[in-house]
Design a protein that fits this description.
Structural class: mainly alpha
Low-confidence stretches: none
Number of helices: 5
Order of helices and strands: HHHHH
Distance between the termini: 47 Å
Largest sheet: none
Shape: globular
Length: 94
């Protein structure tokens, strides 16, 4: 539909994929975190984006920021067991 139009896909799935590529393939955790922050600015209700940001913040060693991101993800999607588990681990409750 958008081929050749110069349009960009700023939906959470696409931006999260770029962030994962930056973090894993390029070993650019700062760039990945920036991409996730951009994703959240454009899609603030995407729980997966908040959870992924938390994971990247935790990998960087910023547990306080990771905990806040996990909590925001759970506000949006309270029954997500993966995020519940990640929050427990980040808080040292497991």
């Amino acid at each position: 539909k958008y081929y050749g139009s110069g349009a960009y896909d700023f939906r959470p799935f696409s931006l999260n994929a770029v962030a994962e590529w930056l973090a894993h393939d390029r070993k650019d955790l700062e760039g990945a975190i920036t991409m996730m922050q951009f994703s959240i600015e454009n899609n603030p209700d995407a729980a997966d984006s908040h959870a992924m940001l938390g994971h990247m913040q935790e990998a960087k060693g910023d547990k306080a920021a990771a905990i806040e991101s996990y909590k925001k993800a759970l506000e949006l999607e309270p029954d997500n067991p993966r995020v519940q588990q990640a929050l427990k681990q980040a808080e040292g409750r497991e």
